[in-house]
Structure formats: C-alpha cells, structure tokens
Amino acid sequence: MKKDKNPLKSFLFTALAAAAAVVLLILFPDNRTPALNASWSFFIELVEILPGVMILMGLFTVWVKNETVIKYLGHSSGIRGIVLAFFLGMIPTGPLYVAFPMAASLLQKGARVANIIIFLSAWACIKIPQELVEMRFLGVRFMALRLSFTIIMVLAMGLFIEKAGGYRKTKKEPNRGV
Amino acid sequence: MQINGTVLFVNAAAAAGLIISLYKNRKKTGKALQIALKGTLKMTPALIMLLILIGLLMGFFKPEVISKLLGNQSGFIGIALASVAGAILMIPSLIAFPLTASLVHSGASIAVAAAFITTLTMIGFVTLTVEIKALGKRLTFLRNGISFIIALAIALLMGILL
User: Fold this and answer.
1) Torsions phi, psi of A45, nearest 5?
2) CA-nearest residue of chain A to B160?
3) Which distant-in-sequence residues (6+ apart) come within 8 Å of B54 by Cβ?
4) Does B95 touch chain A (CB under 8 A)?
5) How high is the pLDDT of residue A93?
6) Could you tell me how far CA B15 lies from the centroid of its own chain?
7) Chain B residue closest to A94 (CA)?
8) DSSP letters along A153-167, please?
9) Which of A54, A146, B82, B144 could hold B36 in an S-S bridge, CB 3.0 to 4.6 Å?
10) Cα–Cα distance, A115 to A113 (Å, whole number)
C-alpha cells in the first residue's frame, strides 16, 4: 500500500489541527460544549468499534486466500462479483471510516477496483436501517427514487473509475505472502 | 440503538474469529494481530485529525445553522450549496434525515434535499485523510470527486421527477 514517506509530517499536521482547534475553542467559548461533546461521542464510537474491525481485518488478511478474493471479487467475477460487492457493503457494519482498511485489504488480495468502489459506496449510502429512516422522514417516493438512482450511479461510477483510472490492466501482485 | 447493535455484531465476530483462529493456528493468529496493530497505528494520526475536525464541525455548524443556511434554497445555487455542505459535514444519519426533512419543510426544494443527503453519506471530507491512508490518493480523489458529480446528477434528476 501507500508507504509513509514521512510519518513525522502527518503527526505535524495533526498537531497543527489540534492547536488550531484549541485556539478556536478559546475564542468562541459558546461552541466549546457541542464541539467537545461531538469529539467525545465520536471517540467512544471509535474505541468501541475499531479494535474489532482491525482484528477482523487481520484475520481476513491471514486466513482468506488471495485466490478466493480474486475468484469472487476479481476481474473475472462479473455480475456476481458486482452483486456481492453491493451486498457486502449493505450489511450494517458501522461508519465509513472502518470500511477503508477492509477495502484496502480486499484490493491487496486482488479484488477489482470497480467492486471496491461499489463496496465503499454501498457501505456509505445504501443501508437498510438508513433507508427506513429516510422513508419515515422523507417519504417512500423520495427514498425509492433516490435509492434506485444511487444504485445505478454507483455501478456506473465503479466501472468508470476502473477504466478511466487505468486500473483495468494493472496486474495485481499480492503484496503479502500468506 | 443502531450503533449498539453494530458494535455488538463486530466485536462478537472479532472475538469468535479470534478464538477459532487461535484454536487452528497460533502462529497465524499472532500474525493477524500484528497486522491489526500495525494497521491501527498507521491510521492513528488520521483518526485523531478526524476527531478534531468532527468536534469543530459539530461545534460550529449546529443543525440550526445548517437549517438556516439551506432553509429556503432552491435552484442550482441551492443544490451546489447543499452538495458542498453535505460533503463537508459529517452527521449521523439518524439526525441527518430529520434535519433534511426540516429543510424541505422550511422551503428547500426536493433537489436540494437529495443533494444534501447524497453528498452527506457518500463523501467524507473529514475522513479524506483516513481514506488516503488506506486506499491512496488517486483512488480517494477519484471516488470523492465523481461521487460529488453523481450527487449533483441525482439531485437534478429527482428535482425533475418529484
């Protein structure tokens, strides 16, 4: 995957952001409580879910063979692979940022880029509980229409990115021997 | 409520997987844990950044502010504004949908509502750092950029049809 050219740099950015946040919150005391509350509840969510996700990812990397991923989500997986990618993304398994490491490990094992884009997008915006909430607040027609458009567009985007990004021809060499 | 179920599911799956894996092969399990730890460490700075950004966004752009900003917006400018707001903000969907409904009630058009919801869920401005760490710059920018265009397209289509 991406090599960190300079881990110091990302820490420096983070430190800068932290400093800016502190200054802002001192200047605007009214916004302090909602800001801290939001960060705190996000932190709790992170602590609750991230270790489990990372362990699952580690187990997945070690136990699932590259050939399996290539067979079900690789270039020759066709429509079945696409359907599987949608389905995997739709399982309610938490916020989008936990999907990124999973997507990375699927990619490493030879899944095609189109399927990874579909998986991530489905994860982000096609969730059964979410659709139910949307239906309740915005109506069946709004929900159904938006859902159908989203599915079509996501599929198109996946195929387009794969093609336009030149991912089609790149031979996937597994980075990690299992 | 939704989150708790998810947390339970993920952790139960991780625990079960770990036990089975330990039973089958100790060495491989160790390696899996090592990969998990390395991955977590690699993501940590990006996650801290996310923590800070979310706090600031939620602190400064409270639902009332957004509501006022996008309230009676319509037309292309409204859609563009809503898309940008949706891309930048990160609101849990349980709050996002009632908020969007209130936008519609206060006069925003259907297209604006659709644009807002779509970019809100699909694009993570604050999670960009995490996404880049995991998937690389090129894929991240392609995905988010095209998602933005898609959101505009969906919004326009819905505005025409509804």
Assistant:
1) -55, -45
2) A145
3) A38, A39, A42, B90, B126
4) no
5) 67
6) 26
7) B6
8) HHHHHHHHHHHHTTT
9) A54
10) 5
Compare all CA atoms of chain A with the CA of B91 and give the residue at the minimum distance.
Answer: A38
Q: What mean pLDDT comes out for the span A56-81?
A: 91
Using alpha carbons, select from A99, A88, A150 the residue that is nearest to residue B117. A150
Check pLDDT > 80 for residue A1.
Answer: no
Residue A117: its chain B contacts at CB < 8 A?
139, 143
A98, A42: one domain: no
CA A26 – CA B145 distance, rounded (Å) = 34
Buried b (16+ CB within 10 A) or exposed e, A164-175: ebebeeeebeee
Give the gap in angstroms from C-alpha B79 to the nearest C-alpha of chain A. 15
Domain contains A111: yes
Please list, residue by residue across A138-157, b when 16 or more beta carbons sit within 10 angstroms of its beta carbon and e when fewer do. Answer: beeebbebbbebbbebbbeb
Range of the domain at A90: 64-178
Residues A35 and A68 in one domain: no
- B103 pLDDT tier (thresholds 50, 70, 90): confident
Distances from the Cα of A103 to the Cα of A108, B67, B76, angstroms = 9, 34, 34
Domain match, A109 and A149 both? yes
Tell whether A7 and A88 lie within a shared domain. Answer: no
Could you read off the pLDDT of A96-134 as tens digits, one per residue? 888 898 899 999 999 999 999 999 999 888 887 788 888
Q: In the numeric block, which tokens belong to residue B152?
A: 């505009």
CB neighbours (10 Å) of residue A12?
Answer: 12
Whole-model pTM? Answer: 0.84
The interface predicted TM-score of the complex, written ipTM, equals 0.84
Structure tokens at B102: 């209130």
Is A58 inside any structural domain? no
